């Protein structure tokens, strides 16, 4: 995979414009919206090509030690152009023609995933605070309770903002910019792992299409599939689900991502995938219709968990995170409410707006306290 040359950037944008119903995500993003948002960036095809090259180079640097053991080039699949769209809106998509393939990723999706990764770091901080007797003795019960309560509100705010960003380019809370350096750095490390899963998954679509006798005859991964016929009924999933051929392709792409990394990294990669799939699962649970192009996210997580079952060395934190994401995912469907999607989204928007008045100082003090303790233990 290489960054698309300017002429190829123009080609894929024109191809998108010709599609009647673009469903780049769980929530359809009409092709005119894609065109408008790309145009709003003010960037030329040449500039998008340069941005794509820089973004891909940044992803290859940390991936080189994992995907190729220091040799070769990560994401090296041939005849695949990468296009990074610096636009609002969450897009991760693959388009495969007879001789060429394109992988598209948007800035909006990266920002969404960063919110989810920061939220994950805050959840870890809460767990540490609640189980650290030294911290409790140092700050007292009242102060600790205030810290934990404010951190929980911060997590809820980031999760709500992530959903809004995921669905329709919602606001990014200003609280993110005020977080301490350690939290930002750890979230960045997690984000790299999540992006690795996303890129390998998209290349899995290319692998799937190229491994079929007539890949060009299949519906494009970035178009909505009209097929509703089930080719199998999979009861081993967390939520029973009938799958069509298009949905089975998603499982193939997930498997491709997992098998692209050494066995020792499969559990961490599955853990990273939870940040994307857990968020996607919530969006699915509040959407009026089930997707005909993707299996339920909770079922994709169950499949990833199985693929990572023999990963060595063992990682108790990763396994617990996947287990908790699975439990939450099942809960999304068991407790699903029949509230219209616009109403649910407006409730989230109101929650994020109200959070602007929250005093975040107890949460920030807690994070700085934990950072100081970590630095002391490594000093």
Brief characterization of the structure:
The protein is α/β, with parallel strands linked by helices. It has helices at 6-18, 31-40, 45-67, 107-131, 133-139, 141-168, 181-211, 245-259, 266-286, 297-307, 316-334, 341-355, 361-378; strands at 2-3, 80-85, 92-96, 101-106, 232-234, 241-243.
Return Rg in Å. Answer: 21 Å
With strands numbered from the N-terminus, the spatial order across the biggest sheet is: 1-2-4-3
- Name the overall outline: globular
- First-to-last CA distance: 42 Å
Average pLDDT level: 82
Q: Residue ranges: pLDDT <50 for 5 or more in a row?
A: 21-28, 215-235
The major pleated sheet works out as:
4 strands, mixed
Order of helices and strands: EHHHEEEHHHHEEHHHHHH
Helix content: 55-70%
Separate helix tally: 13
Number of strands: 6
Provide the β-strand percentage band.
5-15%
Structural class computed from helices and strand pairing = alpha/beta
């Amino acid at each position: 995979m290489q960054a698309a040359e300017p002429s190829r950037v123009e080609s894929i944008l024109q191809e998108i414009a010709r599609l009647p119903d673009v469903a780049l995500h769980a929530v359809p993003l009409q092709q005119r919206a894609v065109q408008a948002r790309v145009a709003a960036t003010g960037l030329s095809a040449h500039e998008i090509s340069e941005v794509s090259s820089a973004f891909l180079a940044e992803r290859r640097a940390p991936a080189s030690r994992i995907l190729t053991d220091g040799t070769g080039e990560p994401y090296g699949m041939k005849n695949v152009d990468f296009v990074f769209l610096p636009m609002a809106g969450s897009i991760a998509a693959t388009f495969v023609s007879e001789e060429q393939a394109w992988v598209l990723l948007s800035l909006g999706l990266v920002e969404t995933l960063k919110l989810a990764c920061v939220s994950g770091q805050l959840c870890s901080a809460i767990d540490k605070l609640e189980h650290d007797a030294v911290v409790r003795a140092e700050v007292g019960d009242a102060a600790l309770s205030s810290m934990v309560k404010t951190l929980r509100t911060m997590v809820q705010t980031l999760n709500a903002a992530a959903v809004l960003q995921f669905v329709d380019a919602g606001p990014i809370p200003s609280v993110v910019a005020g977080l301490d350096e350690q939290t930002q750095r750890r979230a960045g490390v997690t984000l790299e792992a999540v992006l690795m899963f996303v890129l390998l998954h998209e290349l899995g679509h290319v692998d799937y299409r190229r491994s079929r006798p007539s890949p060009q005859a299949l519906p494009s991964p970035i178009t909505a599939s009209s097929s509703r016929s089930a080719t199998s009924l999979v009861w081993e999933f967390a939520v029973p689900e009938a799958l069509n051929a298009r949905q089975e392709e998603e499982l193939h792409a997930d498997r491709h991502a997992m098998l692209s990394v050494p066995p020792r990294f499969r559990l961490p990669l599955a853990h990273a995938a939870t940040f994307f799939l857990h968020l996607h699962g919530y969006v699915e649970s509040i959407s009026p219709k089930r997707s005909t192009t993707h299996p339920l996210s909770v079922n994709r997580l169950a499949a990833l968990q199985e693929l990572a079952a023999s990963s060595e060395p063992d990682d108790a934190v990763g396994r617990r995170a996947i287990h908790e994401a699975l439990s939450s995912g099942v809960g999304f469907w068991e407790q699903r409410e029949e509230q219209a999607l616009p109403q649910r989204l407006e409730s989230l928007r109101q929650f994020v707006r109200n959070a602007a008045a929250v005093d975040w100082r107890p949460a920030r003090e807690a994070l700085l306290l934990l950072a100081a303790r970590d630095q002391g233990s490594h000093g």
